[in-house]
Specification:
The chain is α+β, with helices and mostly antiparallel strands and about 210 residues long. It is built from four helices and ten strands; from the N terminus they run E-E-H-H-E-E-E-E-E-E-E-E-H-H. Helix content is about 30%, strand content about 25%.
Length: about 210
Amino acid sequence: LFRPKDVVSGDFYWSSKVNEYQIYAVADCTGHGVPGAFMSIVGYNQLKLVINKLGHDTQPSKILDELSKGISETLHQKYDESTAKDGMDITLCSLNYKKKELEFSGAFNPMFLIRGGLLQEIKANKFPIGIFLGREAKNFTNHKIGLEKGDVIYIFSDGYADQFGGPKGKKFMANQFRNLLLKIHAKPMAEQKRILDTTLEEWRSSEEQVD
C-alpha cells in the first residue's frame, strides 16, 4: 500500500532477487516533498550498490551496515554537522522460499509476524541509517526466523499509525494498526490492501494526510 503525500515521496519500497533470496525493504526518509524524495533517491541507489558489492551475501544486517556507511559518505555526514533531515528508517528482509527462512534487520521500524492468530513484533535497532564519520559505527542486529505455512509478514513505515483522524482528530496509533492487521490477516492480500486503504481514508476524513 503506497500513498505518497506529494508527487515525490520520502518513503519508498524496494525489492531485488539474489539467487534464491528475495530481498525487500520499506524505507522512511525524514522530510516530505523534494527533501524527502532526495533522500529516497540516495537510499534507493545505495541499496542497489550495496547488493552488487556484497554479491551472494544476503544477510540483512550486513546490507544495512553497508547502506549506512554508503549514505553517510554520500552525504558527507559528520557527527557535529548531522541534522534530522538526513535521517532514514528502514525495514529490510531476506526471504528464502526453499528453506522457508526469513532474515530481518531494521533501523527503528519493526517487522510483524502473525502466526496462529498471534502477532509477534520483531524489534529493530533504535538508531537510524547513516553513521557519522569520525564516530564508531553501530552494527545492526540480524534476526533469523523459520517460517511455517500460513505465516503472514508485514513491514511498514509509521505513516499509517501516525495519521490523524477519527471523531476526535487523534492519531490512528500503533495498537489500532496491530489490531486491524490481526483482524484481516487471513484474507487474500488484494482484499487486505483494499481494507487498509479504505480504513485509512475513512479515518483521515477531512484531515490532511500526514505522511
